[in-house]
Amino acid sequence: MLVVGLTGGIGAGKSTAAARFAELGAVVIDVDAIGRDVLAPGGRAEQGVIDAFGPGITDDNGNIDRSKVAAEVFGRPDRLTALEAVSHPAINAELDIKLRSLADGGKVQAVVLDMAVLTESRLGQLESGRGYTKVLVVEAPEAVRLPRLIERGLTEEQARARMASQASDEQRRAIADHVIVNDGTPEELAGAVDLVWAELTG
Ligand code: ADP
Fold first, then answer.
1. Whose CA is nearest to atom 18 of ligand 1?
2. Is 185 in the pocket of ligand 1 (CB under 6 A)?
3. DSSP letters of 136-149?
4. Quick one: pLDDT at residue 126?
5. How many whole angstroms from 183 Cα to the centroid of ligand 1?
6. How confident is the model over 31-37, as a mean pLDDT?
7. How far is residue 68's CA from residue 32's CA, in Å, rounded to a whole number?
8. In the prediction, which pLDDT does 120 show?
């Protein structure tokens, strides 16, 4: 079973590409969603994150308030490292369980891990050997990403701050096996995904 790590800067078109992979028959796992699940009540990283950050990051019900966590780590690399030290192993453990069960089923040809954070950490790299073995990067120039993000409801300032907090195109390209430049139409993006799919599975 092929496991591909799909990443890209915010607004580059990663999720749109992932949707195309799903149409082609890949199983897409939303790794960012697992990141939310591990912080939810009963989640694998819930207690560890409360221990690391204190009860101040919980809401009135004692559950982790992700907006408080985000505010705590934004622009503070030491706090982000503390969060990831707890959350990433938890995410990888959940991912390993999902990938094992897909592999055991014997029916899945390819899994695409849709993950905003790939370049920056060991997320998706599993000691079991079940993690991604290929990296696909979707990129687009900032001038193309900005209007897409503004249309999605961010202010220009928020969009620029989010882009600046992520890995650079150069960093992503350095670890990519495949790069798709999404600066054209959605149809062109789908066509580029189809070509990569043919290469990966051919
Ligand atoms: P990401 O997951 O990388 O943040 P998305 O796939 O959500 O990015 O794309 C960001 C926005 O841009 C979405 O609203 C999406 O529909 C739109 N979009 C993606 N690719 C294109 C494209 N080639 N042309 C026009 N809009 C696009």
1. 13
2. yes
3. EEEE--HHHHHHHH
4. 97
5. 10
6. 97
7. 17
8. 87
